[in-house]
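Troubleshooting entry. Yesterday's outputs looked truncated, so today I'm pasting the complete records for two proteins to confirm everything comes through intact. If either block looks cut off, that's the bug. Protein one:
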Amino acid sequence: MKPEQTQIKFGKRDLIIETGKLAKQANGSVVVTCGGTVVLVTVCMSKEPKEQLGFFPLTVEYQEKTYAAGRIPGGFFKREGRPSESEILTSRLIDRPIRPLFPAGMVHEVQVISLVLSSDGENDPDVLAVNGVSAALSISDIPFNGPIGAVRVGRIDDKFVLNPTYAETEKSAIDLIVVGNRANVIMIEGKFKEVSEELAFEAIRFAFENIQSIISLQEDFSRKVGRKKAEIKYKKIDPKLLGLVESMTKDKLKEICLLSGKEQREEASDILAQELEEKLVVDGYEVKDVRLALEEVERQNIRSHILDKGLRVDNRASGEIRPITCEIGVLPRTHGSGLFTRGQTQSLAITTLGSSSDEQTVEALEGESSKSFMLHYSFPPFSVGETKPMRGPGRREIGHGALAERALSSVMPAKEEFPYTVRVVSEILESNGSSSMATVCAATLSLMDAGVPIKKPVAGVAMGLVKEGERSIILTDLNGVEDHFGDMDFKVAGTISGITAIQLDLKIDGINLDLVSQTLINAKDARMIILDKMRSAISEPRSELSAFAPRITILKISTEKIGELIGPGGKNIKKIISLSGAAIDIEDDGSVYVSSSDPEASRKAIDMIKGLTEVPEVGKIYAAKVKRIMPFGAFCEFLPNKEGLVHVSELAGKFIKNVEDVVKVGDEIKVKIIGIDDMGRINLSKKQAEEAQI
């Protein structure tokens, strides 16, 4: 196959898709280019089905190698290791819109790999990768119900910007990624600076309209270079088995659906499954097939119950929120804590305050940066009553934490206003749906309890959907079983004034714009109720920090004094830290941050810093120490490493014949600066200092 290329206008730049040159042994491969950013995307499918797995084995990997930005990795091994959080989040961004578009019952393993080959520091590779994956799947022989298109939308000076650069995104009130097909929206990922539901929807509409040309490009490209789709075996439930399970469980499943508690439903379902296995395995059916059939019958029953009766499995109406309780200050020694419980979902959030030295350094292709606000999400197995090994954070934990962090980042105070590094950890203690949005609420309570002056409280809610043909019901405050058997997980977080973050994931091939709009409206109604519940626990951030939190004082020194403060080899600053016990951070602009939970340690460090950096001022009185005695006067140190002369005539208000009759080496006295000559020599007066204090 000879190389083929196509392109389209992609905002201010061109989007170029090429195939037939690189990675030709893959089932499908494309190179996507925008500006100086280049992404290679490959898709491969196993030759044999993996029927034993019982699910669709899709693996998505996204990798950024430092060579793409002309850098060599740090560390001893000088090579990339485990995926960064950014790589994991982009892998999820690719996975979520394509997963529902593979045919039902597909059990051939599919692997998607996106490699960033070049990065220009302007154009984000994530959206390029999504479009590249769609193009690679479309031209491959892998069954795929695409293509799809993806765009990023910003808003600058009250105008939407298509595919903004990194610099433009920094200035934007919106950072939105939308993925869709011809008819529907499939995935949304967005961060907002408190924008209205109406503006958020207009941004989504703008994105959807611009997606269409990208889809047309891929359709034309596929017709030109695409391969015939492979004929593969799909795993389907035996209709006879499905009928048997349905007839044997019809009445019992209706009863199970009406059970209000999660544990009760799960226990009853498990007992029913065991009964079925005992009866059907002897007839030659495998246990896993019986379980799959039962799950399908249960899915149909729950969905029919919601659509036909307008009631959910926990007897709530479609727009009803589960009972909410909010608490603050639940932990005695932490800097701030908040407990948020919604139904059987519970998040305990803990806030810790630190200095600028605690900031997280983030290395990315676009350069190194630092984060002063971090939110980490933890999902231990006991939260769902399970036992399994506890290891490092997985993709789910990283994804949920990033979403909650986006939701809160726009309300965090500026460093000038609150010079602390802030870390929030959400411990999920119970989970029955929407733990990421519970995290947003708990984190808000915790931040306010810690005295962090956030601009406004933030709450979040997950919206669900059950859709069959033309019938659909939007569900407010999604629970676990609705998430499992439903069609949508649409998370919306925001303040009383507007949206701060949204995330849409689907199990179907998309929803139309009308459903998107209505979901945003319903989510706003729910958010106002939740914010009101949160205000009953704490209405505004505490005015005082915890007694256990560090106190940070900001000093401003001349940039010319930075070297003097640090000293040769860091001698001076190390000495101050050692003697005072305070933490000290120095910025390039002359800002000095002194932090300690001990007020005396802070005071001592501040005095020493001021002493080292202060510029002597004529007329000012200082505490000084006599260092040397001369026949004509005494040399005194009035600031660290700064001396001046008290002439014998300025020692006292009378004639002095012998200097040592008035002062001796080691004496501590008050002196006044009375002059600084052209050579920088400083003249002091003990006499005038004493007169000024009378």
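Protein two, checking that the full record survives here as well:
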Amino acid sequence: MIKVVVDGIEVFVERGSTVLQACEAVGVEVPRFCYHERLSIAGNCRMCLVEIFKTPKPVASCAMPTMEGMQIFTDTPLVKKAREAVLEFLLLNHPLDCPICDQGGECDLQDQAMAFGSDRSRFFETKRGVENKNCGPLIKTIMTRCIHCTRCVRFATEIAGVEDLGTTGRGRETEIGTYIEKTFKSELSGNVIDLCPVGALTSKPYAFLSRPWELRSTESIDVSDSIGSNIRIDSRGTEILRILPRFNEEVNEEWLSDKARFSYDGLKLQRLNTPYLKKGGRLEACGWEEAFEAASSKLKSCDGTQIAGVLGESVDSYTTLAARDFFAKLGSPNLVQQKGFSGLDSGLRSGYSLNTPIADIEKSDVCLIVGVDTRYEASMLNVRLRKRFLEGNFTVATIGVPSDLTFETKHLGTSLSTLAQVAEGKHPFCTILAQAEKPMIIFGGGLLESEDSELATNFLTYINKGVPGLSAGNWQGLNILPSGANQVGQMDLGVNTTPFIEPGVLFLFGADDYEVEASGKSFVIYLGHHGDVNASKADIILPGAAFTEKSAPYVNAEGRPQETRRVFLAPDLAREDWKIIRALSEIMGGSFQLSYDNVDKLKERLYQVAPSFMSNDVFVSCSFNAFDSKVESPVSVSRDPLTKKVADFYKTDSISRASRVMTKCSSAYKNTSNFI
């Protein structure tokens, strides 16, 4: 630590810190445009100028390292005059677009113009005009507003790992673009909108819809994948106008995938807003009483063993608990996950979750990725892997379908036979694993959902025994990456995958990707919020609530309980899912009725069944013994190549499939190998 003085205040900072960071340590806000704490230092806007004792001229605080005894001044007449001059230069060619700019109210340039701008211009020449660039269906460009801070360029290169953006020209002729006529293809492209300090890059879906001060913000979490990215939902009335990332250093930092950011328009399309009952082979709208009476009659007419239920991977934990308790009263053991893990002990969380916290990926030195494309199945996890890779001394190897993870990897093979060689210590990569201090293996949950789940589990056991570093001390490096938003939460509540024959009654809880038997022997009850694939196959439809219409707990891939927050009520006759189950149990009456009738009693029941839910937004470590059992090595191993689990990044659930914006993205990138 070294001592510096900022405006007469002494402060100790780490050696190597910048002057700007020293100023922030004492609470002094230094204006900036190009500087961002998660990006490399560019030092090209010069707005952060400060005065340092015995220096001949103001210096850029973002690029100047601190030195012992340095005296820094941020509010002298020289500093003020220098910042005013810089801002005047930045505004020379800037158009007077504030009344029509979507950045208005959130614009750094506006804020700094109020502090250091002049009330008139000394520039009378023609302003520079720049042609707008095509950055795809998500980003609207008005490049005349660009101040060349290069935040977008550095994000694309350093964080997203897509070197599509860059600068051409010099001085006032500098332009930001893609060099050649092509779109900015990245699953993280929307983050450049947040980074842009002016209105050069804005959101196309949000264009001209609202001003920020008209919006009501609700903190929630994303359910499009298993990471549980923290988000902020901005709404007006009963309409969501945009979704932005919310800072959480341990989960998604301050980034967000495009699917999580832009698929919200699908929430109001193809919605189920009234119950339906099949009459004469056609689904017809009906009231709740008629739908409940039909469902109750059918459920009572069947033996419990002839009733089966399937939970969609994004079904919240309140609904999961209510369904679990309801099926117990029905006498049915057949409540399963849509995509559940087989071959593992569901009582041990280490066997179905990330045992390495997402933030601790930055501590690892070797990583083996098996059967999962982290870039498109868990984008925020891939961002962490890339961040660790850029720090150096980090080896990443993959087994499965070759893919571009935006950083260098060693592709070991495409089938489970390669994994068998690694598990039995016969592959050259075993030497690297054995020498690693903190190795990681990220195993795709899709393999544990496949026919090869038993083989995969055996290999995991052998790898765990053969690589001591995987569970050395407090380090737990063997990880299962689930695909669904609440798969871990459902496993925590005891819902597993147990095969069942075609039942008399099949109850689908938002299970849109579950293959319903084509024979049509089952009476299908569908509870969900979108008229997706399986809704059309149902005999009874019960309209539920989307994640934006209820406050409910979810558990992300690392076992961190988090909660969505209700933005507004579900449309028309749609209701929260657990309340529908509770009402159905009351209609059935007697021993079928659930005991809880409000959310407080439901929460008490949840904490009773799974106490881990009490630790909201906290990573809860677990016993690392799911892979300790002794198993026999398989005699034969399939050499068939592993398949890609995500066919289209933009079309993975009922919400994104209904989204027009996601449809445009899927179409725009259909010729890219990563988007099939």
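Both blocks look complete. Sanity check on protein two: The longest strand covers residues 230-236.
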